[in-house]
Amino acid sequence: MNLKKLIFLSVLFFTSLSFAEKRYVTDLLKITLRSGPDISYRVIGHVYSGEEVVVSEVEHKWTRIKDPNGKDGWVLSRFLTSDEPKKDILMRLKNQHEKLKQKAKDISKENESLKKDNKQLSIALENESNSLKKVKMNFQTLENNCKKYNDLVKQYKEVKKKLSIQDNELITIKQEKEILERFYFFWGFGLSLGVLLLGFIAGKLLIRKKSNRLI
Questions:
Q1: Number of helices and strands in the chain (H, E)
Q2: Mean of the per-residue pLDDT values for the chain?
Q3: What is the per-residue pLDDT across 47-92, written as a single tens digit (0 to 9) for each?
Q4: Distances (CA, A) of 126 to 26, 118, 119, 122, 132
Q5: Burial degree of 67 (CB within 10 A; 0-12, 13-18, 19+)
Q6: How far apart are CA 14 and CA 20, in angstroms?
Q7: How far apart are CA 40 and CA 74, in angstroms?
Q8: What is the CATH topology of the domain spanning 2-83?
Q9: How far lies 13's CA from each of 8, 9, 19, 72, 160, in Å?
Q10: How far apart are CA 96 and CA 99, in angstroms?
Q11: Cα gap 81→69, rounded to integer Å
């Protein structure tokens, strides 16, 4: 009795494992779906190659399934497989291949866009580099001009200082000239006055000599 229960439980256990298990119809065009696990049962529909069905029960050579539309029935177990149909695999691989091709095209377009952007950036960088060179040259020129300007300012200050000294010397010379002119004026006036005075004295002396002779 215990052995029978054990066998029953084992069968029930393995049967329960098959419930809700996925299977695929093998690469035949179509197989019949019957109302019971024998060819004597009536045909209630068909399932086609590559369709995914759900297993709910297994009995000897027959398997109870639900087709993609949810219809419940029995099919021969040898027409079911746990392997995905080759055409589905091929279709999936084909779809993946198409996606990869599209992705490769997108990457290629993106790469071309990046190349264009890189080219534009290279041109912009070259222009910036040339502009920087010009700025450096202008800065160097400005720096040289500033140095020349500073030299000119220094020279101007030196010349201004010399001119200031010369102006002071000129003022001194003018003052000395005025003093000399005054001196020469008074000396000439005094000399003239002395000559007149000497002439007057000489005249007086001559008059006296004449008067003494007459006496």
A1: 2, 7
A2: 80
A3: 988 788 999 999 889 999 999 899 999 999 888 887 776 767 777 7
A4: 66, 12, 10, 6, 10
A5: buried
A6: 13
A7: 12
A8: SH3 type barrels. (2.30.30)
A9: 8, 6, 10, 22, 120
A10: 5
A11: 19
Give residue for tokens 């809700």: 20
- For 121-147, what is the HEC assignment? HHHHHHHHHHHHHHHHHHHHHHHHHHH
Tokens of 170: 């000129």
Output the pLDDT for position 11: 44
Higher pLDDT, 80 or 34: 34
Q: 51 with 85: CB under 8 angstroms?
A: no
Picking from 37, 28, 36, 43, the residue whose alpha carbon sits closest to that of residue 61 is 37
102 is written with which tokens?
A: 């599209």
Measure the CA–CA gap between 207 and 209, rounded to whole angstroms. 5
DSSP 1: -
Q: Are 59 and 97 in contact (CB under 8 A)?
A: no
The Cα–Cα gap between 115 and 193 comes to: 113
Q: What confidence tier does 45 reach under pLDDT thresholds 50, 70, 90?
A: very high
Domain ranges of the chain: 2-83, 85-155
Q: What is the DSSP string of 40-75?
A: TSPEEEEEETT-EEEEEEEETTEEEEE-TT--EEEE
Single-letter residue type at 130: N
Which pLDDT score is estimated for 212? 67
Extract the tokens encoding 5.
């229960």
